[in-house]
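Record pair follows.
FIRST:
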Amino acid sequence: MLFVFPLLFVFTTVVIIPFIIGIGYSFISWDGMPLNEKIFVGFANYIQLLSDSRFIASAGHTVIFTIFTVLLINILGLTFALVVTSKLKVRNVARTMLLMPYLIGGLILGYIWKFIFTDVFKFIGETTGLTGIFFSWLLNSKYALVAMIIVTTWQMAGYIMIIYINGIQAMPEDIIEAAKVDGAGFWQTLFRIKFPMIMPSFTICLFLTLSNCFKIFDVNFSLTGGGPNNATEMMAMNIYNEIFSLNNYGYGQSKAIIFFIAVAIITLIQVSITKKREVVMQ
C-alpha cells in the first residue's frame, strides 16, 4: 500500500473526482464564469444532443476516420513487425526509424504536416503541373480527412509495430519449425499458426488504436482545426469548442459523458470478441 497509495491518490484526484464532478455539470446550464448562476436543467442537455446536427456530423466524421485509421495502423504495424523480425540485415535501424514518428508530439506533428499538405504540396503541383494531386489538401473537405488519416497512421504504426514484435518474438519456435516440417507454406503458417498465437497482441493493439482514434484531438486541432467548414471536426474537438469557445460548460459536459459511454462500450465489445479468440499456450 505504501507504493500504491501515491499513484492511487493522483489517479483519484486527477481522474475519478473530476469525472464525478463532470457528471454533475452535465445536468446544469452554465457559462463557466464562477460568479454566474448554475441553473439545473435535468436531462435537457442530453435531449438537446438529439437535434444537434453539428455534434452528429462530428460523430460521423469520427466513425469514418476511426474505421480507416484503425485498419491502416494495424495492417502497417503488423507488416512492419513481420519485416523487422525477419532476417533483414537493417532490421534494427528500420525498427528505430519506424518508431521515431510516435516520439513526436501530436501538436508538433500536426503543424509539420500542415506545412507539407499546404505549402509543399502546392509547390510540387505548380512545379510539376500535377495540380490534380498536389494542391492544398487541407482546403478540400474530402482530402483534409484523408490527410488526418495519413498523419495519424504515420504516427501510430511504429508504436503498434513494437507490440506486434513482442507477440511474434514470444511465439515458441518449435511450433513454427514443426509447421515447416509438416509442409506448411508462408501463408498457412501466418494465418493458421502465427496469427492465433499473437491474438493477445491483436487485442491490445485494437484497443489502443480504437480508443486513441476515437479520442483524437491534438492532430485534429493543429492539422485542420476542424475545417474546412467543420468537415474534419471530430467529437473531441466538438466538445472542446462547445466548452471553451462557446462557453456552454454544462452542455459540453453532457457531450463528453455520451462520448465516454460510446467509446467505453465499443472498446469493451472489441476486447471481449478478441479475447475469445486468444490461444492459451500450455
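SECOND:
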Amino acid sequence: MELKKVFVDGYKNISETSIEINDITSVLSVNNYGKSNLLLSVVFGLSFLQQHSKIKQAMMNDIKIVPSLKKKYNVPFSFMIECTTKWNDSECFIKYFYSFAWGGRKDNNGKVISELLQISDNKKDFTTFIKRDEKQASYKSSKTGRCVTKIKIDDSELVINKLLAFDNLFYNAIIKELLNINVYIDRHFDTNSGYGITFMSEQELTDLTLKPEVNIPKTLYRIKNDYPNKYELLCNVYKSLFPSVNDLIVQEFSSKMPSITIRNRNNEIPSFSDKVYVLYVDDKNLNYPINFRAMSDGAKRILLLLTFIVLAQINKYDLICIEEPENSINPNLLRRFLYTIKELAEDTKILYSSHSPYLINYMEPRNIYLGLPSDDGVATFKKIKTNTNNIKRLIRTLQDNNLTLGDYLFDLMSGSSDDYEELLSYVE
C-alpha cells in the first residue's frame, strides 16, 4: 500500500491541513507556528488506527493535545488518508476517514463520531464500504450489496478494527494493509546519546527496531553484517556529503568483564552482554582514525538521520517524519543532503518540517507546504500552486527583486497584511 495523502484537523492548533505525500515533502513556516504539531498529528492519526480500544479512549481523553485556541476550542479531531494498492490484480484507490470528539474534561469521555471507507478502481467513482455517524454504523458485507449491514460498535472503537476479525470479508486484505501503515517521527536534537558505549542484552545486540534509543555504532555494525549493500550505500552517501571522509569503521569489542546474568526463581535472564561497539572515522585530513564521538554535532546529526532512514526502510515504514533536519547542519550541505536521502529511503517516504529558507531553494515547488500567517494561533499549511502561470509569476518576482525563493516566501510568511495577501495568491 502506498500512502498518497493525509488530512488533519483538530489537533492542538492544526486546522484543516491536507498534505500530498511525495517521495520528499516539506512543511515550512516561521518559528513557533505549528510545524511540529503537524508532524505529530500525522503520527497520532495513524497510531490511533492501530490501538486497542482502551488506548484509543486514553488518546481521545489526552487533555494536552485538545485544541484550546478560542477559534478551534474543542473542535473534533478529524483524520483522513488516501492510498493506492493492488487489489484483484489491478490498482485501486482508497479513502479512509474518521473523527472523534475530544474528552478529558470532567466526566466527559471522548467518542468516535464518524467513519468512512471508500474504494475505487478508477479514482473517480468511489464505492462506500464503511459508513458511520453518531447514531449507527454499517458496512458492505458482499460484493453485490450496498453498505447497509449494521454493526454494533462502542464509542471507543473503529469499525475498521472490528472488521479485521472478519477473515472471509472480501476486502479484508485492504483493511489489513490500512491498519499496517507504519510511520515514525524523529525528534533527535541531542545527538551525543546515540554514540556512546552502552552495555546491552543479548537481544539488543541483534535488534534493528526503529526507536528513539538507538545506539548508532551497534546499529551500523548490525546493518553491515545483515544488510551489507545498505551499509555500503549509507557509507557512500555519508562520504558524498563529507568528501574528506575516507571511510567509516565500526568495530565490535569484547569487554574484559564477562556476560552477566540475573537469576530469578524460575530461570536465568541475560542482563548484559560483554560486547561493546565503537565507531571510527578515517578522514584524509587526520593522521589516524578518530572516535566518531569527536565529530561535530552536524556530522553526528547527519549520520543519525541517515541511519534512521535506513532502519525505516528495513522495517518497511511507509513514512518517516523528520523535524528540522537543518539543525546543526551547514547550509552548504543541505542541498546534497536532500538529494541523497531519498536514495537511502527507497520506498519509505519522507515528510520533514523546517524553518530554513535554504531548504525551500532545493525543493520542487509541488512538494512545498507553507504555513499561512495567523493572528489567532491557528496553523494551516497550503501547497504552492504549480500551474505554469503561477510559477512564471513567482520566478519573475524573484528576478525583479534579486531574491531566492526561500528568502521571498519567508518574508511573506512573517510580513504585513499585504504580504499575507500576496502569499495567498501563490498557494492553493
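COMMENT: The first strand starts at residue 2 and ends at 9.
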